């Protein structure tokens, strides 16, 4: 009886193995048959192109620089347009202004000079380079170009500024301003000057200018 059981068991095992092999063969045949169809479908539907990075994400300007550039622009436009109201919106009643020549003026004197000054060619352009936030105070550094008359000649005074702003409600008002002229030097002196880096880059001035870059 045991021999008979062994004889009947072996064929059943072999049959199951053959059946599994046939099923695997059919599966592989179907897989290879569908493979060309999948390749054609992928070729006809390429992956979507990468979304380009927005221009705003590529900029290196901080939100603080953009914010205070608007304030400086309002300041410049108020002077250029002889706008008393616009000037009072950016200058604090506590303003102390130190010009490049060392003259110290208040806000009222700045407004009077803008409205009643004899020089009608005055035109100011200011560019913010750095901003340091100190709570309700902010210190901005940048470059400026002031077109005005010196005697009978018109000149473009180029220099750097430091402005201290104080937050007043939702606005920023300048409480201290100081300017320093970047003096022009001869070509011979420029060759001997130090190559050490400046505290910040001065991009406002063109390469053709003779002043320090």
Keywords:
single chain, 213 residues, alpha+beta, Nuclear Transport Factor 2, Chain: A, 2 domains, six-stranded mixed sheet, 6 strands, 30% strand, elongated
Question: What does this 3D model show about the protein?
Answer:
By secondary structure, this protein is an alpha+beta fold. It folds into 2 domains: 9-42; 63-183, Nuclear Transport Factor 2, Chain: A (Roll), CATH 3.10.450.50. It is 40% helix and 30% strand. It has 6 helices and 6 strands, in the order H-H-H-H-E-E-H-E-E-E-E-H. The protein has helices spanning 2-44, 55-58, 63-80, 84-88, 107-116, 187-192; strands spanning 91-98, 104-105, 123-134, 137-150, 153-168, 171-181. Strands 2-1-6-5-4-3 form a 6-stranded mixed sheet. The longest helix has 43 residues, at 2-44. It is elongated, with a radius of gyration of 38 Å. It starts with a helix and ends in a 21-residue tail after the last helix.
């Amino acid at each position: 009886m045991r021999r008979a059981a062994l004889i009947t068991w072996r064929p059943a095992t072999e049959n199951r193995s053959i059946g599994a092999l046939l099923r695997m063969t059919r599966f592989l045949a179907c897989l290879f048959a569908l493979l060309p169809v999948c390749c054609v479908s992928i070729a006809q539907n390429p992956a979507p192109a990468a979304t380009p990075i927005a221009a705003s994400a590529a900029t290196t300007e901080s939100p603080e620089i953009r914010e205070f550039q608007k304030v400086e622009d309002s300041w410049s436009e108020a002077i250029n347009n002889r706008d008393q109201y616009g000037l009072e919106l950016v200058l604090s009643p506590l303003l102390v202004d130190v010009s490049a020549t060392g003259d110290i003026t208040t806000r009222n004197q700045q407004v009077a000079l803008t409205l009643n000054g004899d020089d009608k060619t005055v035109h100011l352009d200011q560019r913010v380079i750095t901003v340091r936030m100190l709570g309700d105070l902010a210190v901005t550094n940048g470059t400026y170009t002031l077109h005005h008359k010196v005697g009978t000649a018109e000149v473009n005074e180029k220099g750097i500024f430091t402005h201290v702003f104080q937050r007043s409600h939702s606005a920023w008002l300048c409480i201290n301003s100081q300017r320093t002229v970047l003096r022009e030097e001869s070509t011979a002196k420029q060759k001997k000057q130090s190559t050490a880096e400046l505290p910040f880059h001065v991009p406002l001035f063109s390469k053709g200018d003779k002043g320090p870059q």
